[in-house]
Every structure is written in C-alpha cells, then in structure tokens.
Design brief:
The structure is a single chain. By secondary structure, the chain is α/β, with parallel strands linked by helices. The protein has 7 helices and 5 strands.
Length: about 150
C-alpha cells in the first residue's frame, strides 16, 4: 500500500465518525507498512475536547506497541489536524503526517479549528520536525463530508 491507500482509510474513518455521530474527521497510524490504529472524532459526542480522530489514533497506536514513542510512524488524516493534534503527534514521535483536506477559512470561522495558526509555524519552532505532506486527491470528498455533517447538525 502507498500514501494514497492509507489516506483513503483515513477518509473512511471520517465517514465512520459521522455515522457514529461524530465530527467528519478520521485518522490512521501506520508503521512499517502495518496499520497500528484507526481513530474517529467523537469529542463533541463524548464531551471530551481531546477526543479528536488523530489523538484517538495516536493513543491507540501507543497502546498497541506498548510505548509512547511512535518514531517512524505515519499519521494519515482526512482533515489537516488542529494544533492540539499536531502537538500530540510531535510528542508521540510521529515522523510524518499525510492529510487529504486543508484547513479552510470557512472551517476556522465555524470553530472547527481553534484559529488560523499554521501547523508549519509550530513545526518550524519545534525541536523535532515532522514531515508534512498534503495529497489533494480526496479533498473534495472530505469537503463534501463536512457539508453533509453540517446539514445533519441543522
């Protein structure tokens, strides 16, 4: 499998998240070609501000390997992660993040992100850098899923 294949799994997790009543974000952690964990974004449903797809997947991956060090692992995410999840990835040792949909001004305006701070700014100031890759192949699908989720909220 390649980055696009794993990214597609993250998009599928976003769909699962919406099906389970969560926010339309999904994530997958992969190391050495093996999927360690998957995550959905149920924070609003569970009243837990840390239960984002990426943080959930990172927690599960750490438990799966019995370590808080995920060096060499890749985090695949349907939506560009928020600053909290980016920081969790950094603290967890994630080496690379691949995402399908960029943070849009509309999503920031709707408070789906805490602000406009760019993860690349955080990355440039961190001691350990994460390789960050945007693959737009599934971006429209992710944006459509966000719109579908928004419609269900009305």
């Amino acid at each position: 499998m390649n980055d696009k294949d794993y990214l597609k799994l993250a998009v599928e997790q976003a769909k699962k998240s919406v099906h389970e009543g969560g926010f339309p974000a999904g994530a997958v952690v992969v190391k050495d070609g093996k999927v360690l964990s998957e995550g959905v974004s149920l924070g609003w449903k569970l009243n837990d501000p840390t239960e984002h797809a990426e943080t959930s997947a990172i927690r599960k991956a750490c438990k799966a390997i019995g370590s808080s060090n995920l060096e060499g692992a890749v985090l695949y995410e349907s939506l560009e992660c928020c600053n909290m999840c980016f920081s969790v990835a950094n603290w967890g040792g994630i080496s690379k993040i691949v995402y399908a949909c960029q943070k849009t001004p509309e999503m920031v305006k709707n408070f789906y992100y805490e602000g406009v701070t760019d993860n690349q700014v955080l990355n440039s100031n961190n001691n350990r850098k994460i390789e960050v890759v945007f693959i737009p192949d599934f971006e429209q699908e992710c944006l459509d899923l966000v719109k579908e989720w928004e419609h269900k909220q009305k």
